[in-house]
Amino acid sequence: MAVATDTHRAIEAVWRIESPRLIAGLTRLIRDVGTAEELAQDALVAALEQWPSEGVPKNPGAWLMTTAKRRAIDQIRRNETFKRKVEEVGRDLEESTPDIGEMVASDDGIGDDLLRLVFVACHPVLSTEARAALTLRLLGGLSTDEIARAFLVPEPTMAQRIVRAKKTLAKANVPFEVPQGEELAARLSSVLEVVYLIFNEGYSATAGDDWMRPALCEDALRLGRILARLAPREPEVHGLVALMEIQASRAAARTGPRGEPILLADQNRARWDQLLIRRGLAALERAEALIDGKPGPYVLQASIAACHARARRFEDTDWERIAWLYEHLAETTSSPVVELNRAVALSMAFGPETGLALLDQLMEFPSMQNYHLLPSVRGDFLMKLGRLAEARSEFERAASLTRNERERTLLLDRAAACTEPA
Amino acid sequence: MRFMVIVKASEASEAGVLPTPEEFEEMGKFNEELVDAGVLLAADGLQSSAKGARIYFDGDKKTVVDGPFTETKELIAGYWLVEMKSLEECVERFKRCPCPAPGQQTNIEIRQVFEADDFGENFTPERREAVERMRAKVAENS
Asked: Residue A152's closest CA among A101, A98, A203, A213?
C-alpha cells in the first residue's frame, strides 16, 4: 500500500514538472489540446511502466517527449482526414513522412509553445471558470481532483467542465498561436484576469486545514512568474506578478490566531514576508521600466500595494500617492469599488471631508445602493468629523445590509459607540 | 510549500576553488529552468568557511571561533529557496541538478520551511466566510 502511494506521489511530481512543456510541444504537433494532453498522459504511463525496470533516463523530459511524439505521429498517420489531404495533393504517405520527422526534430521554441498554450487555455470562447480550470490543468499540472477541491465543486463537475472546455476549443478551431497586434492586448488581459482570479480564490482563505486554497496562491504566482519569463516585454504581466508577490507577502499577518481576519491597518507588519516584498518591488520596477504611455490596471494596483509594503508602520503610509494612484485606476476601470477605495485614501490624505464628498457622488450608482461598505465607510468619516448622530445611523444601515453576523456585531458596536460624547 | 535546498561543502569549495566555466554554465542552466518554472525564490552560494566565524553559546557565555571549520561534509556551501507542491516535486527537480562537487561524493539536503499555514488551526466555514467578506473591505482591496 505504501509503495502504491509513493509511486502515485512520484507520478504526480513528474507530471507536475513535465506536463506543461509536453502538452505545449504536442499541441504544436497535433493542434488539439485535448488529444495532446491524452498523449502526454500515455507517455507518462509508459514511463512509469518502464523506468522501474530499465532505470530512469538521464533526461526524463526528453524521453517523455520522444515517446509522446512517436504516438502522436502514429495518430496522425491513422487520421483519415490527414490521409485524404495527402492524397489530394498527390503524394503518398511515405513521402510526407520527412515533414513529420522535421516537426518532431525541432525541439526548440518550447517557450513559444508554452506561451501559445497559455493563450489557447485562456481563449475568450471559454467562460472565465473554464479558463481558470484549464489553465491550472494544462499549465499548472494540477489534477482534476485538486482543481475541484480548490474551487469547492464536486470532482465530476470539474471533470465535465474541463472536458467541455477542450471540446469547445476543438470545435471553435482555436489556432495554436500567440495573438498579434491589437488583439494581443485584449487577449493578454484575459490571461492575466484568469491568473489573478486563481490567486484571489486562494487568497480568500489563507490559513487552516483547507490546504488547497492557500496553495492556489502559489499556483497563481508560479503561473504569473512563468508568464513573466515567456512575455518579458509586457509591463502588465510584471505588474500582476508584483501585485501577487506583495499581496502574498501579507498572508501570515492577515488572520488572527482563531482565523479572524485582520485589516491592513492592524496587521503586524513584522509578519510580512520581506522576501516576497522585495521580489514584488523588483517586478514592479521591471514593469515601470517597460511602460510606454499610461500604466495599466495591474501596474497601478501593484503600485498601491507597494505603497503599503514600503510603509514600516501604518502611520507612515503615503496616502497622497495612493489617492493619486486610485484616481488613475478609476480612469481605467470606472468601478465604484475603486472609487470607494479612493474615497478612503483621500480621507486619509486630506481629511474626512474630502472623502465624504466623493462618497456622496457614489450614492448615485445603482450597484452601491445596498452595498454595506458604503454606509460603513461613510459612518467612519462622519464619526471622525464628530457628526455622531449621522455616523450612528450610517453604521446601523450598514449593519442591516451586511449578511455576515460577525460584521454586523462589529458595526452595531460602532453604532453604539457613537452615542457617547466624543 | 517552501523548501530550502542545501548544498554541502566539498574540499574544493572549502579550498576556495571556483567552478570551471563549464560547471558554471551547467549550474546556470539548471537555475534558469527553476526560474522558467516560476519556482525559484532565492539562491546564493557561500564562500569557504575560512572567511567565516562561529559563535558558540553556553548559557550566557559566548565564544567566537574563526573559520575554517574542519568537518567539511557538514558545512553548507550554498542554498536555494524554492516553492514546490510537495517534497516529491522538490526531489524530482533537484535530482536534475548538476553534481555540486563534480567527481566527488556529496549530498543535497532538502528541508521544508515553516510557514503561516503550518498552524493547523480549525478553520470553520464561518471563519472562511468572514475572511471572504472582509476581503472586500476597503483596506484589504488596496
From this structure: A213
CB-CB: which of A17, A210, A224 is closest to B92? A17
How many cross-chain Cβ pairs, A to B, lie less than 8 Å apart? Answer: 144
Residues of chain A neighbouring B128 (CB-CB closer than 8 A): 204-205, 208, 210, 259
Which residue ranges make up each domain of chain B? 2-114
Which residue of chain A comes nearest to B122, CA vs CA? A208
CATH superfamily placement of domain B2-114: Dimeric alpha+beta barrel (3.30.70.1060)
Reported ipTM:
0.80
Average pLDDT, chain A: 86
Give yes or no for a contact between B37 and B30, defined as CB atoms under 8 angstroms apart: no
pLDDT, tens only, A383-419:
999 999 999 999 999 999 987 777 788 889 999 998 8
Cβ(A377)–Cβ(A384) below 8 Å? no
- B97 φ, ψ (degrees, to nearest 5): -70, 135
pTM here is 0.84
Closest residue to B123, CB basis, from A10, A13, A209: A209
CA A131/CA A113 separation, integer angstroms: 18
> Over the stretch B89-131, which tens digit does the pLDDT of each residue have?
999 999 999 998 888 888 999 999 987 555 444 444 455 445 4
CB atoms within 10 A of CB A289: 9
Chain A contact present for B130, CB below 8 A: yes
